[in-house]
């Protein structure tokens, strides 16, 4: 017999309240004050503060002290990434990524965020194209990749600050790419203005990438679609990548793009 949902919530109120807080934060475009959480969710303010402190300890939320607001932390992104790595996202994405690779004649891939990394969950290599480091299961620093920048640019500024608080958060592969929060902010402004993210030799010398974000129902970055090619070749995949990202969002039931 299935337990009554109301009875279960009454037996474990802290679990119910914690999940409601996380869901509420996930549905907001920017961090939220604790007082607003208490008011909008009908949870006592003291309880909200206790739950937020526990969630912060485990990395599921971050406290922006100067703004007196709370937002999702890196553990929440890792949890979301664990879901998106499962079969539904890969199953929907695989035929679209294969069609993109066939259309452009270069390698295409699909990635999700995992903390400060991107994790590649689908790769389709076009015929006679070289192997890339972006194989399925590979993690790369998000700030250096086109897929990572496409997703970072779709996050609220406060979330990006939480992920990259100082220069110590930045790793290097080829001597190129942002190394400080200010440089990353400028790179992400360019992504928002262009509608796509680019990368030129920052992951592997001699290779370039273009990527577009796939947003979920709350307008958060669920994944990113990209094409990678040798920079000596003349390729213009921007429209195809954007079209694939829009189609994938539609197929996932998140909207029309």
From TrEMBL:
Gene3D superfamilies: 3.30.450.40, Winged helix-like DNA-binding domain superfamily/Winged helix DNA-binding domain. Residues 12-74 form the HTH iclR-type domain. Residues 75-257 form the IclR-ED domain. Keywords: DNA-binding, Transcription, Transcription regulation. It comes from the Bacteria. The keyword Transcription applies. SUPFAM superfamilies: GAF domain-like (SSF55781), Winged helix' DNA-binding domain (SSF46785). InterPro entries: GAF-like_dom_sf, HTH_MetabolicPath_Reg, Tscrpt_reg_IclR_C, Tscrpt_reg_IclR_N, WH-like_DNA-bd_sf, WH_DNA-bd_sf. The keyword DNA-binding applies. This is IclR family transcriptional regulator.
């Amino acid at each position: 017999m299935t337990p009554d949902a109301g009875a279960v919530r009454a037996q474990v109120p802290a679990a119910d309240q914690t999940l409601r807080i996380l869901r509420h934060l996930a549905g907001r475009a920017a961090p939220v004050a604790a007082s607003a959480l208490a008011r909008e969710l009908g949870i006592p303010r003291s309880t909200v503060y206790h739950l937020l402190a526990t969630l912060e300890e485990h990395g599921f939320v971050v406290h922006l002290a100067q703004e007196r607001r709370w937002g999702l932390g890196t553990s929440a992104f890792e949890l979301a990434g664990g879901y998106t790595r499962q079969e539904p996202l890969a199953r929907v994405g695989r035929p679209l990524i294969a069609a993109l690779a066939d259309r452009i004649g270069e390698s295409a891939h699909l990635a999700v965020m995992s903390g400060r990394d991107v994790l590649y969950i689908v790769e389709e290599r076009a015929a006679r194209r070289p192997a890339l480091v972006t194989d399925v299961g590979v993690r790369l620093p998000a700030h250096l990749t086109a897929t990572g920048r496409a997703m970072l640019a779709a996050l609220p500024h406060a979330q990006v600050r939480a992920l990259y608080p100082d220069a110590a958060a930045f790793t290097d592969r080829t001597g190129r790419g942002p190394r400080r929060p200010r440089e990353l902010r400028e790179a992400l402004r360019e992504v928002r203005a262009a509608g796509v993210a680019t990368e030129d030799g920052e992951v592997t010398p001699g290779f370039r990438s273009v990527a577009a974000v796939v947003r979920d129902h709350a307008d958060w970055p669920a994944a990113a679609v990209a094409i990678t090619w040798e920079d000596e070749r003349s390729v213009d995949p921007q429209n195809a990548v954007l079209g694939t990202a829009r189609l994938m969002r539609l197929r996932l039931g998140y909207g029309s793009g």
